[in-house]
Amino acid sequence: MKRITIYDVAKEADVSLATVSRVINGSEVVREDTRVKVQEAIEKLGYKPNAIAQGLALQKTTTIALVVPEASYFYTGQIINGLVDVAKIFKYNLMLHTTTEGITEMNDIIENIIKSRVDGVVIYNDKLTKDELNQLTRYQIPIVVIGNKISDETIGSVYVDFEQLIYNYATECIQKGKKRIALVEDRKNPAMIKQLREGLSRAYAENGMEFTGYLEIPKEKKSSYEFLKSFIKKGIEYDVVITYRDSQAMAVLNTAKEADISIPDEMELVCVLDSKYNAMARPQISGFKIPDYDLGALAMRLLTKMLNEDDEVIDKKMELSYIFTPRKSTK
Amino acid sequence: MKRITIYDVAKEADVSLATVSRVINGSEVVREDTRVKVQEAIEKLGYKPNAIAQGLALQKTTTIALVVPEASYFYTGQIINGLVDVAKIFKYNLMLHTTTEGITEMNDIIENIIKSRVDGVVIYNDKLTKDELNQLTRYQIPIVVIGNKISDETIGSVYVDFEQLIYNYATECIQKGKKRIALVEDRKNPAMIKQLREGLSRAYAENGMEFTGYLEIPKEKKSSYEFLKSFIKKGIEYDVVITYRDSQAMAVLNTAKEADISIPDEMELVCVLDSKYNAMARPQISGFKIPDYDLGALAMRLLTKMLNEDDEVIDKKMELSYIFTPRKSTK
DNA sequence: CTGAAAGCGCTAACAC
DNA sequence: GTGTTAGCGCTTTCAG
């Protein structure tokens, strides 16, 4: 089957290709009967405009690049859903780029993004140097970053302040006398853990103490569970242990049970990133409800605004809040 | 900043644009010193070839469309990872399209895919009519479907035969005397549940019985958990209950515990789609390890073969196997 | 209201 | 080896 182009339609409808172009793009100036004539020709031939050619002619692709860490986790998934939904509303297509921990060179992705001439990019990524961002801005491409407070002329950001979140929580704990707080390392999210440590350190510092509860998982241990198993049975050293992801929290739960430590009576447990699995565990795990879907949705919305010259973007830096969801693992 | 094109590079390097094109595409015929000259010009100007223009000229975009259900679940995520990794190897870009249950009209997506002139598409989707596929094939675009046994001239498929899986399992159960098997409905995956029911029915039929253990979740119940709660406490009616997703299995686990039913002693539990959460539950939930990552990776590999004229595609229909992972919820 | 023609950036014969 | 030129399919002035 021969590729059918605007030219074929023009011939079929006995008009010029300019006219066909007009009806495709819903121009008002076309007379009704010729519009119908063209429409019929389009139907008959099964013509679909070539977005690539349009992109070339218009200097815009109506597609946005998405850069996300490997799409494995529920949390990321929800963010993507938010991005996708809003993109759909504004008729943007999405190019998916994923970063694997360290392995995927950001540079390749950036190179790719630039070549593909997308209209904008949304990046959800902890590790991401200023340099790399500049690379993108140098090519004038609008960016929205999820999870970082960066922002300037062509960069917007949408995030939750985890440092503040954990600071607030720790402060409250300390004031209630729960001074022994532990934070479990998460190898998959070093940048996030760094933020959490900072928040904890700040809270401790303000109370004249030093934070010493960072639980680094020894290299030889393959999983948090394996580590915690040997760690937790040593005895109860902490009032509350904080994990980043649900699976780590569940590991704590399981190891505590095995060590006959009662949660929350003898030790409390909090998971930063709440998830449905937290609610399914027994005891149910307390956590912070992060507006993941909204992070994605608002990021995309912000980008569409930045892309649309008519829209005045008031604030390129959007901080979203979280809600602590107390369940059974905390008192 | 003015958009810099191949023409600018040509002028800068004092050669013709054809030569620049040649070095960009690694043509062998360029003399070393002019290649260097051009490279320098490219560096200096920060030139990046416009993939859109290349796409137009070459009649191919080196991008593949992905159609997946909303990217929420771990299972889907792994498939995507597989797809992404292989796509990366073969330098294909990915356009992401997601289908929301029923809401997203497949037609819009198809329209979009056709317009974007992708080289191929990978569809992971239960509900997908033959009609819709034909729509795509009509435009000569190669497709690989994940999860369905469809296949013809331009369509390949990679799947796990769940009907057979559950048939095998049920048959074994029946032979061991566990004749009361239940299957919990999954509203989010009706097509999959249909397959599972068929497998169960077949197993029962072959043993001269009829399958009656389909547990439909009443419309007024908001979650599997809510339903199971009222259902399970009625007493033990089944020898083994089968769920599709991990969260449903966990719901069974929790409700059984609340009803003081011992798993696996009084009732066994199997989750079709195994996940890490199954291993974190207590008792740990048995399940079938589905090669999700491989499904994605092989689907993409198959597509790349179909796209490459040199490659002879031997079999467009790939059935992957599963492994039953017995844990503590089955005897 | 419609058509003619230039151009978007790049590739690929075809010359030289 | 390198340059010239004709497209790839579509949009958009500019005329008429």
CATH class of the largest domain in chain A: Alpha Beta
Strand order of the largest sheet of chain A: 2-1-3-4-5-11
Overall geometry of chain A? elongated
Low-confidence stretches of chain A: none
- Provide the β-strand percentage band of chain A: 15-25%
Q: What is the radius of gyration of chain A computed over CA atoms, rounded to a whole number of angstroms?
A: 26 Å
Into how many domains do the coordinates of chain A divide?
Answer: 3
Largest interface: A-B, 53 and 54 residues
**For the record, what is the CATH homologous superfamily label of the largest domain in chain A?**
Response regulator
Q: What is the correct CATH architecture of the largest domain in chain A?
A: 3-Layer(aba) Sandwich
Q: Oligomeric form of this entry?
A: homodimer
Tally the helices of chain A: 13
Question: Could you please say which CATH topology of the largest domain in chain A applies here?
Answer: Rossmann fold
Order of helices and strands of chain A: HHHHEHEHEHEEHEHEHEHEHEHEE
Query: What's the overall average pLDDT of chain A, rounded?
Result: 91
Q: Please give the share of residues in helix of chain A.
A: 40-55%
